[in-house]
């Protein structure tokens, strides 16, 4: 699959304008449309995104595994595993950054999300706190490294068992809070992309994002399609539109199968799932 440049990733403003994303009847009191041209939602293979950084759903060893984690390691090549070996693992709720090598992005941020039903997650203060920290730490690392765009995989929603709705809500809250905390920093982060691989995660984001980031015209919330279409012209346009490119970007085809998850990046059998089933505290991808 060809790399997808940031200019071809639809923003929330684009998705509202095309009626791909619809207003919520339950918009939150602190909802804002201020960042609609900076936030994107897409369902695709994250290894194809040409953002400055992508966020890997890593395990605490940072040495690869199955699912998205394994796909990122395979696409990046062996140098990524070499760099990860030097990082000495990563705590749950934290993240570390490496170069991206063969990937179309510039950096890979490896975030370790919580296992939803693990005792360690409960002892550390709860799943939501740990998962939210993955997002804010990743944003901090991206900003510190000069990245102006970042794409998140749906952290912890795979074999780690985090329900898609709860995970999406935590992710959206964390990103919104990070943007609002420092407007200067928020202005330097030109794009934050929520990238789902599975339909269940995409649907969760589609349902929850409008509650936090409604269309620019609040009067359209809960109205019929005609009212939504009428307000689309009021939605803030992304930089490309301001330069005369008025067409809404065409979304790429969604993946039809999950990444291969039976091998480690170095060709060894993937043992993560088996270890988890044995009741160990070893973390797995996602």
TrEMBL record:
InterPro entries: Macro_dom, Macro_dom-like
Annotated SMART domains: A1pp (SM00506)
Cited PROSITE patterns: MACRO (PS51154)
Superkingdom per UniProt: Eukaryota
SUPFAM superfamilies xref list: Macro domain-like
Region (Disordered): 216-286
Basic and acidic residues: bias regions: 269-286
Domain named Macro: residues: 26-213
NCBIfam families, A to Z: PRK00431.1-6
Protein name: Macro domain-containing protein
Native source organism of the sequence: Friedmanniomyces endolithicus
Lineage: Eukaryota, Fungi, Dikarya, Ascomycota, Pezizomycotina
């Amino acid at each position: 699959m060809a790399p997808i440049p940031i200019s071809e990733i639809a923003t929330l403003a684009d998705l509202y304008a095309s009626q791909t994303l619809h207003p919520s009847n339950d918009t939150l009191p602190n909802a804002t449309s201020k960042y609609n041209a900076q936030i994107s939602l897409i369902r695709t293979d994250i290894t194809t995104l040409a953002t400055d950084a992508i966020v890997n759903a890593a395990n605490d060893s940072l040495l690869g595994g199955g699912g998205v984690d394994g796909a990122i390691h395979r696409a990046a090549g062996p140098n990524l595993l070499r760099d990860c070996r030097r990082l000495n693992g990563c705590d749950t709720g934290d993240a570390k950054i490496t170069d991206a090598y063969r990937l179309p992005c510039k950096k890979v941020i490896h975030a370790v999300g919580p296992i939803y039903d693990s005792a360690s997650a409960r002892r550390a203060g709860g799943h939501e706190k740990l998962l939210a920290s993955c997002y804010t730490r990743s944003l901090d690392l991206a900003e510190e490294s000069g990245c102006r765009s970042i794409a998140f995989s749906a952290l912890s929603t795979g074999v780690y068992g985090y329900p898609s709705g709860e995970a999406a809500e935590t992710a959206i809250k964390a990103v919104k809070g990070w943007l609002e905390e420092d407007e200067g920093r928020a202005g330097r982060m030109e794009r934050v992309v929520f990238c789902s691989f599975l339909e269940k995660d995409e649907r969760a984001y589609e349902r929850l994002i409008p509650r936090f980031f409604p269309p620019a015209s609040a009067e359209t919330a809960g109205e019929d399609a005609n009212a939504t279409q009428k307000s689309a012209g009021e939605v803030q346009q992304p930089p490309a539109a301001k330069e005369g490119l008025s067409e809404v970007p065409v979304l790429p085809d969604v993946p039809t199968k999950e990444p291969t998850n039976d091998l480690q990046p170095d060709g060894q059998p993937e043992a993560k799932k088996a270890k988890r089933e044995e009741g160990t505290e070893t973390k797995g991808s996602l």
